[in-house]
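re: ur question from earlier - yeah i can do the single chain one, its not a big deal. heres the input i used so u can compare w yours
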Amino acid sequence: VKEQEIVQRLEKDAMCKYTSDKQVLLFGEEHGEFAWRDILQFIDLFPCLKANGFTSIAVEINSRYQKTLQAYWENPTDIQKEEAIREMSKTYSSWNNSPYLEDTLLITKWAKETDLEIIALDHPGYPNFTKRRDAYMKKRIDTFLKKGKRLAVFIGKAHIKNIEHFETSFYPTITPLGYRLIQDYGKENIGS
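and the output i got, formated as tokens:
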């Protein structure tokens, strides 16, 4: 067990050093039941990110739920959590009571604990505007960077690819967010 703890600490220390000069950190995750490990690793970085000057945590949730996330960030109670899940389930109906919404609120709660702003990043028309999502998220990130913010983004791995075009059976051909950011800001400023 001690060896595993040492390895984890060394990995965290390396990640802290790696993020020290980045403007944006894209932290990829797999949606679904196996996301817990990714979430815990991401949350574990929050104190380091804060110490490195990061100001914000962005999550892959429809941006029209910014007020919902902000309300939970300001008052992370069980009642507020239930209200947030009920509200977000209107869009994510197939995810009703899904771990993903609860995971997003867990990230939100820990963002508050480390005094990091929470941002709902995704397209307000999701799920109907799948092809436009990455371009929309890129514009949102641009807006925050222009304000001097540094963001850590918790997002599906498909969005962080550094390739010009990408498609799956679920997505039409898209230009991933990661590629768009690197093209505009350079690989030295975008971590993943």
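Strands lie at 24-29, 56-62, 117-122, 151-156, 190-191. not sure if urs matches, ping me
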